[in-house]
Write a structure and sequence with these properties.
Nuclear Transport Factor 2, Chain: A; 6-stranded mixed β-sheet; binds ligand SDN; globular; alpha+beta; about 150 residues
């Protein structure tokens, strides 16, 4: 770990990064969300679906996925929690979080689905955090195991 920045600083920076990133997705700013990934970034949001690659590919994937809500608009919010972070010697960060997707239609009670784990590789680019890869596992998928969080 670099001496200039404490683990606590890094942990808070990753939380802030996620708060901004996931708000972009939830507000429908797919371009903004996709550009929080590196130019060679990879994103798999559903098991069995091929990874979307590059910010342009990620925008296309998100536009396609959200077509299923056409005619039945919903507000989705991705709630991240239980962040576990490991910093590698080359500065790469591995992060695992729990994610709940809260979906509100016109009903007062939101649906919580799916319950997910997220495994990210994060890097610093020009002093800013970016996602190099994101793999989302879904708890209903019995082939998926999130494993224990790494001890730092
Ligand atoms: O970006 C994410 C996502 C995400 O984009 C998801 C999408 O649909 C588009 C970060 C962390 C978790 C997720 C989870 C999902 C769930 C996925 C599939 C679905 O909602 O049925």
């Amino acid at each position: 770990m670099s001496s200039a920045r404490s683990f606590t600083d890094l942990y808070v920076a990753v939380q802030q990064f996620y708060a901004v990133q996931m708000r972009m997705l939830d507000e429908g700013d797919f371009e903004g969300y996709a550009h929080t990934f590196t130019s060679d970034g990879e994103f798999t949001h559903t098991p069995g679906r091929p990874p979307a690659r590059t910010p342009a590919g990620i925008v296309k994937e998100l536009v396609d996925f959200h077509k299923k809500f056409e005619g039945n608009p919903v507000q989705r919010r991705h709630w991240f929690n239980m962040l576990a972070l490991t910093e590698h010697d080359d500065g790469t960060l591995e992060s695992t979080v729990y994610a709940l997707v809260l979906t509100s239609g016109t009903d007062r009670v939101p649906e919580v689905a799916p319950s997910c784990t997220v495994h990210d590789v994060l890097v610093h680019e020009s002093g800013r955090l970016k996602t190099r890869s994101r793999t989302v596992g879904h708890d209903y998928d019995r082939t998926h195991k999130s494993g224990p969080a790494p001890l730092t």
